[in-house]
Amino acid sequence: MNPQHRAFFNEVVKHTRELNIQKGKTLHAKIIKAGLSSSVYMANCMVNLYAKCGHLPDAELSFDQIDGKDVVSWSCLINAYSQKGGVESSSAVMGLFSRMRAQNTLPNAHTFVGIFNAMSNSCDVLGGRKAHSLAIKTDICWDVFVGSSLINMYCKLGPIDDARQAFDRMPERNSVSWATMVSGYAMHRMAVEAVGVFKLMMQCQQERENEFVLSSVLSALALPEFVDIGRQVHCIAIKDSLVWIASVGNALVTMYSKCGSVRDALQTFEMSSDKNSITWSAMITGLAQSSNSKEALTLFSRMHYCGIHPSEYTFVGVVNACSDIAAIVEGKQLHCYLVKMGFENQIYIITALVDMYAKCGSIDDSRKGFDYLQEPDVVLWTSMIAGFAQNGDNESALSLYGRMEAKGIPPNELTVASILKACSSLAALDQGKQVHARVIKYGFILEVTIGSALSTMYTKCGSVEDGNLVFRRMIARDIVSWNAMISGISQNGCSNEALELFEEMIMEGIKPDAVTFVNILSACSRMGLVERGWKYFNMMSDVFAIAPALEHYACMVDVLSRAGRLIEAKEFIETAKVDHGMCLWRILLSACRNYRDYDLGAYAGEKLMELGSQESSAYVMLSKIYTALGKVDDVQRVMRLMKLRGVGKEPGCSWIELKNLFHVFAVGDQMHPQITEIQAKLQILTKQMIDEGYRPAYD
DNA sequence: TTAGGGTTAG
């Protein structure tokens, strides 16, 4: 080769390495002028230069002009497309590969690397297997690059066992093959297997751990039960000085956050000297997901102050933090900021915004976000459905789910849980049953989320038996499932069964929480079981170390008052070790009215007056008690106080939905078109009630 | 003296 040719080659290589397309193009012109473009070797270099610089059409043009394309020409273009990614590129690769074979050019290891990479983006497992068998026939699989690409392909396409088989059969492995296998297991959330391969690698004399394998194994360990192994990997990273590499630090931050050790995550974050946008995003997301949302917002400000540009991941994390604490002002500011940065078309961002606006009660803004995208994915549909349900618009939740089904988008577990919640609120048993049919059709397992939602739906719709059937068939139950079932049974008037279920739960070794005790104390109250009420109330702190909160005291006052043990209730309130404000006295006052214990009622009422109650019912009840006691002066005093304090009496109001029409009734209101018939019917009912022995309250 | 594989944030 003459010196001029050599100089050209060196220059192409240099421009390719520096991705300098301008200089590359100028050089291309010089090469044509020098009559060197007919050299296949030189033309291949030009195809590669254009491909590496991201100019695929120019690469293809140069490729088309090559006379006598060799395996390098084909492989160059195949790899250019496979690196571009996406389903379209993988079909372009397969097209090129057929053309190459039609021209009798034999593929080599470079070609197969491109083929396997393209297939890994294709969702075509069968196509992947065909390519694999062709590589075996061509006797190419021994190559360590081909092997790693093959493992990667099977990991991404799904059949992870095939990936492992390919890994086990490799005659030679290097750090990339180990890292690919570990990251494959991490991708499939197979922590035990990922750690297994990592340990094998550590035992292997030729291999040393590197940042790729460490970050992969750490991402597999991001579950609370693996935090101890995660710490051991952290030690290895420190020992090998790999902890200072950003990707390892980032993986550690995420691992600790997801394991529930936010403190460790923060410590790792602060110690990291090589923070990039990912590090900040990981920490912000970690804080938001561990109910430290205010800290997440503060960290975002700090990131901004440090001059680090937020990515779409950062915005997802920080917008989710706003959702968590319903910070609408900050949420809107972020919305403006991310539009300025050009992220408003990203589906993850839109989903986070829809969720944020719904949790902040701005359901119209959620709807705008949802309508913004032509083709929402299942997560976005679910966020919008859940948003409607959270805001009490259960009809819209159901109708949107109908649209989603009509579009043929299969729901996921969270969609089903949200829609079941809407059915529960509407007591829509028929629709709930249809959703249950979908659960069976899609083969969803009755794990905690779906099982609890389903059993709650049945009990809220009054079908305790079906609720129980679902509850019994669940493969796993957490405290939320038990609480939901206990409360559901109790609300259907089966308080005895609710208490039995609680005893069963204790026998199974499930530790009750504060919600459980609210449920069972309410059941005791409904059944008038004072002694059991006391037993459970004391059990909370004595056996389960749960400090009774205001709602437990309220339940206990209710237990005592409903059973007519009013003095005991009064003493209980006065010795309560909780800042009870007015809530407990109000319960007692109401009970005194029902039991006509006017002296004690007056005592409770005066307590409420002393505490400055703003509730009209307290003033009305107390004045009625004084009326009954014949204390006219006190009646006038209470009414004056009510006026002085500006307490308005809100008119009692109720409504009923019949055939999609709401009928609203307020006290003293004569607006309803059928009011005469309604009042006549009420008189008949009242008479019937008195005849059957019921006595209406004194007012 | 041309072409190839692995990581971390939703």
Q: How would you describe this protein?
A:
Helix 7 (109-120) runs parallel beside helix 9 and helix 23 (378-390) runs antiparallel to helix 24. The protein has a domain at 652-699. A two-stranded antiparallel ribbon has the order 1-2. The radius of gyration is 35 Å and the shape is elongated. The model has no long low-confidence stretch (mean pLDDT 89). 71% of the residues lie in helices and 2% in strands. It is mainly alpha-helical. Strand 1 and strand 2 form a beta hairpin. It contains 39 helices and two strands. The chain starts with a helix and ends in an 8-residue tail after the last helix. The structure holds one DNA strand of 10 nucleotides.
